[in-house]
Each structure stands twice: as structure tokens, then as C-alpha cells.
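Ticket 4471: requesting a sanity check on a complex prediction with flavin-adenine dinucleotide. Repro inputs:
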Amino acid sequence: MDFGLSDEQRMVVETVRGFVENELYPLEAQVERDGELPLETGKAIQRQVLDMGFYAPNIPEEFGGGGLDHLTFALLERELGRASMALSVWWGRPSNILCACDAEQRERYLLPAVRGDKMDALAMTEPDAGSDVRGMKCFARRDGDDFVVNGTKHFISHADVADFVICFVATGEDQTPRGPRKRITAFLVDRGTPGFEIRPGYRSVSHRGYHNCILTFDDCRLPAGQVLGEVDRGFEVANTWLGATRITVAAMCVGRARRALDLALDWAASRKQFGQTIGKFQGVSFKLADMATEIDAADWLTLAAAWQLDQGLAADRPIAQAKLFASEMLARVTDQTLQIYGGMGLMDELPVERLWRDARVERIWDGTSEIQRHIISRDLLRPLES
Amino acid sequence: MKVLVAVKRVIDAYVKVRVKSDGSGVETQNVKMSMNPFCEIAVEEAVRLKEAGVATEIVAVSCGPQQSQETIRTALAMGADRGILVQSDEALEPLAIAKILKAVVDKEQPELVLLGKQAVDNDFGQTGQMLSALLGWSQATYASKIQKADGELTVTREIDGGLETIKVKLPAIVTADLRLNEPRYASLPNIMKAKKKPIDTMSPADLGVDAAPRLSVVKVTEPPARQAGVKVGSVAELVDKLKNEAKVI
Ligand SMILES: Cc1cc2nc3c(=O)[nH]c(=O)nc-3n(C[C@H](O)[C@H](O)[C@H](O)COP(=O)(O)OP(=O)(O)OC[C@H]3O[C@@H](n4cnc5c(N)ncnc54)[C@H](O)[C@@H]3O)c2cc1C
Ligand SMILES: Cc1cc2nc3c(=O)[nH]c(=O)nc-3n(C[C@H](O)[C@H](O)[C@H](O)COP(=O)(O)OP(=O)(O)OC[C@H]3O[C@@H](n4cnc5c(N)ncnc54)[C@H](O)[C@@H]3O)c2cc1C
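Returned C-alpha cells:
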């Protein structure tokens, strides 16, 4: 067993960290203040990352991407996680699921996404179907070779800057002993398709400037060529390609937690009360010890899950454990950081309150903590149940 | 033209350096190490010279412990073609490094050697000059601009209160100053290519160099802590203090 980084991994980490600190941190205050990033600033970040050959690092080299393995990609996400998501979204990592494109779709979606010519978003969630994704109401009926879609998606991240959206839509229903079960199909839907609208969503307390959107389908006609993967097999496509997304959530949590810890350490070592630096009080120093320990634990869980995926081993449980622990760890670490800062921690002069706010969504999106616990416990109990 | 670039592994410029409790040096355990920022500028300049079709091959050399290999890899990821590690676990002084670099130059026969103007660890600022003397080559230190013409370089130097432009004959030694360029981020393809680029490892003895120290460190201390300032109650008091205490007006 080897817990060290290879030279390439070390350089990836150093390069991304350098970029995040020098190019992205200075833009954060503006994003927090305005609640958005000017499009041209986003495009400029994108241009820089393209020039560095670091765009689409997760996509295989045969499609023009960086071809990183899951472990190295997790290391990259960890460093990106330090920065505001309104900024890091422009370091394009097209959804892996686009690798399911057929030859013709590749030219229209995957390759432009890898080149930075098109941005993708991914839509599963609906107002009445969150954790219970299969309960979705958005429905596509067959009409000759076409599909006609009606319904609504919400909470769809960065669809405001997306050129197309990978949408999961019900295309039928099977009767099973446990009741009706929807068949789901994945579609590639272009912005501007008649009957398809991308509207502003809600204002979120987490990740200012990284917007979520509402998508509406009103008799939206999609030719069969827009189906990603096979009809009725949308969840199979998702399960094949989207497992790794949860690792990226975990990895980003770890990076952000390390930034919080760095801030906490700085403050503990410089803020004086009662004639000494507050880090000298055990009430503060033991917090720091627990924070560092938890962050390392989450880091190793995350990297180990990525490693399992790279080895082709079953990784659903390790990924769920990493996502669960890292997102809950981030909540504790940012809360303790804020506590160590005292009143100043709440003030928007410093990045602490932002890290604390941003942490909140991580326990909800990409599968809530409760859903992760379902995945983990089901995996534990299934072999024991008759 | 073949270019040799010297790169040094130092404590990262953004790390808060701590003096060891016995005053024998600074703490390096568990401290982030990086390429000396001025060496990075030197590598960047070499890569730009290559991109401009002026340089044909870039060889990155580092003298230091085994881990200096990481520093060489970083140079390779920025665009250097191959590396040489002269491995030594002893602390190397500027003169020892200059002698080692001279031996490498004798072997490699570059036309230009680029170095940082100084390393941010000990701030000696001597290696380039010593190397130039040992080789009998022209030198242009503190460079903020380099242009090549036939058999010579035109170098703009940063000097007190201004800029000085000089011409030096090749082969030459040039040391890089802060404003020479802004080093690039290593690209992902180059990071991946770097592992396939060769690094030769040798010792000072292999090069016939006696790298034994000539200096001994007597004591290392923290800089004195800055004294807290004072608040003044009025402009009149400020003017009074500037006049009578600070004696600056
Ligand atoms: C900012 C933001 C961005 C998002 N971006 C996207 C996106 O880009 N694309 C996309 O498709 N979705 C996106 N989502 C949706 C996200 O994945 C869902 O919010 C998440 O799956 C939870 O669904 P819900 O919010 O409807 O909560 P619900 O599913 O209604 O859950 C409410 C509560 O009930 C609990 N619960 C539900 N079922 C169970 C159960 N069986 N056992 C125990 N507890 C249960 C949940 O854990 C939760 O605590 C985003 C959400 C947010 C907030
Ligand atoms: C919104 C807001 C409104 C406020 N309104 C008022 C007001 O109207 N009037 C007023 O006078 N004040 C007010 N305050 C100030 C408030 O009472 C202080 O913020 C609080 O006393 C903590 O002080 P501090 O923020 O300077 O943190 P610090 O005292 O610097 O504490 C920083 C951290 O060190 C810890 N710490 C400090 N000493 C020790 C120790 N000996 N052992 C262990 N841990 C220690 C603290 O618990 C904290 O975690 C307000 C604060 C806020 C945020």
C-alpha cells in the first residue's frame, strides 16, 4: 500500500492550488457582494483553463479531455473545492455521462463540451420528486419517431449558463409486485428548443452566484436522436456514469474544510484574549485537533473510494460513506472555525461566514445524508437478509 | 542554442519560516517546499526562448537532496526537456553550487545559463556571479528583459533607481529578476509528459567537485518583532511627533 502522491499528482495539486489562490480567490468578494459573476469573467477563467490544457480533465483523452483517473481527479476537485463554486464552475468538468453519447451526439455535445464551446447541466430533480427521483412526473410520450415532453424540473445547477441540459424524463411505467415503477429515459435538450424554457430558480443561502434554475417543458418535441443511451434505460446510464460525481462532492468538501482550518489556525495563532493567543486555550486548541483529524479522515475516505473506482471494484458504499462523512465533517469544521473567530466569524468582511453557509448544501444535493445512509445500510444488511 | 537552467528547492515562499529552537537553522520538517520563485522565472524565460525558436534544448539542473528531483519535474512540466540532479544531502554553499554548475556546463556545453537572481531561503545572491567567474563567461544579473542577436544578448538589468541595458557576448550567465516574466501554470499535458522526460542523477564527487562547506553558521535568529504603533489624538500631535520624535519633517 502506498499513500504517497506520484510526481504527476503532486504537480496537478500544486498547479490547481496555485490557480485557485491566485486567480479565483481575488474574485470571491465580488461574487459574494453581487450574487453573480459577470459572464465575461467566467469566460475568461474558462479561456485560461483551456489554455492550460486543464479543461475537461475528467473526460478520457480519446475525446480530447485530460484523461485523469478518479483518484487524480478527486485530488483536483479537492483543490477546486477551496474556491467559490460560481468561479470554479468555469473550470469545466463536463458530466461523465456524456461519454454515453453515440457517434453523432459526440460531435454535437461531448466534443463541444470538452472544447469549452458548450456548457452542460444535468436535471433529475422536480418539485415533487427529490430523493425519490423515480417518482418524477416529467413525462415524454411517443409521437412517431419523436418524443413530446411535459413537466417541470427545479434546483438545476448552473443551467443559466448551460447550452444544453441532460434531462431525465419518465417514458413509461411497469407494473411490479411492489407497485408501479417508472421507466426513465435520459435526453439531451438544447437551450432554445421550442417548448423548453430555462428560468431563474430560487436564491440559495449556499454558493452565491452559482445559480439553480427551473426548467419547464410545454409540449416540447424531441427527436429520437436526442435520447442519451437507450430509451427506458436512463437510470442504467446514470448509474454507469454518475457514481463518480458524489466523490467530487466529497473531495470539494475536504478542500473547503482545509481552507477553513487554515483560517482557524491563523486566527487561533494571532487573536489575543486574556493576555495570550486564543490557540493556547485548550477550549480552542482541542477544537483544532478534532478538525484536523476529521478532515484527514474524510480525505482518506474520499481518496480510497476514488481508488476503488479506479480498480474497478464495487464502490457504491465507499462513495456514499465518503460523501456522507465529508459533507457532515465540513459542516462541523466550518461551524467550529466560525466559533473560533467569535463575532468576526459572522461578518462578511471575512470568508468564514461564506464557508459556513456554503457547507449547508453539501448534505442535501447529490443525495441527502439520509439517502447516503440508506445506500450504506442497505449494502451492509442485504447479504444478511433472506 | 542550448540553455541550462538552475533550479533550487526551497521552503515555499508563502510559508511562515520558523527558527529552530537551538538557533542552528530554520525548521524544514513538515514544511512545504517549492521551486525558488526566481528559478521559476528563469525556467519560464528558457521556455519562452524555446517557443520563440531561439533555444533548442532546455536542461534543468538542481543541486540538493533526492527530493530536489520534484523541483526538476516541475521544471520539466513547465517545458524543460531533461533534468540533471546533482545529489547531496549536505547543505551546499553558493561557491559549491557554482563549482558543480561549472562542471555540468563543461559536460553539457550550453550557450546560456539562466539562474534566479537569488534563492529566497538564504538570499545569498552569489551563485550566478561566481559561476560566471569560474567559467570566465560574461554575466548579466538582475535581468528584466533578454533579447538575443547574433552571438550576443541584449539584457535590461534592474538597478537602483532605474534600468540599465547591456550587451553581453555568448556564452553567458544571466540571472532573472522579478519582472522578467510571469511564470505560467504547468499545463496538464506537460505534467503528464514530464514523467517520461529523463533525469540524470550524479554526485558532486562524480563531477570531481569538492562541495565541502567553507562557511560555518554561527547563529540563526528571528527578526526582531515589530513594535506596536501609537495612536495620536490630533493632527497637531501627529505633526509634533513627526517633527520632534521621528525628526522627518
Ligand atoms: C442548490 C441546489 C442545487 C441542486 N442542483 C441539482 C442539479 O443540478 N440537478 C438535479 O437534478 N438536482 C439538483 N439538486 C437537487 C438535489 O439533488 C435535491 O435537493 C436532493 O436530492 C433532495 O431532494 P429534495 O430537496 O426534494 O428533498 P426531499 O427528497 O423532499 O427530502 C426532504 C427530507 O426528507 C428526507 N428523506 C427523503 N426520503 C427519505 C427516506 N426514504 N428516508 C429517510 N429520509 C428521507 C431527506 O433526506 C430530506 O431530509 C440541487 C439542490 C440544491 C439545493
Ligand atoms: C451580531 C453581534 C452583535 C453584538 N452586539 C454587541 C453589543 O451590543 N454590545 C457589546 O458590547 N458586544 C456585542 N457583541 C460582541 C459579543 O459579545 C462578542 O462577539 C463576544 O463576547 C465574543 O467576543 P469576540 O467576538 O471578540 O470573540 P473572542 O473573545 O475573540 O473569542 C474568539 C474565540 O476564542 C474563544 N475564547 C476566548 N477566550 C477563551 C478562553 N479563555 N478559553 C477558551 N476559549 C476562549 C471564544 O470562545 C471564541 O471561540 C456583538 C457581537 C455580534 C456578533
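Notes from triage: Residues 109 and 127 of chain B are 18 Å apart (CA to CA). Leaving this open until the requester confirms.
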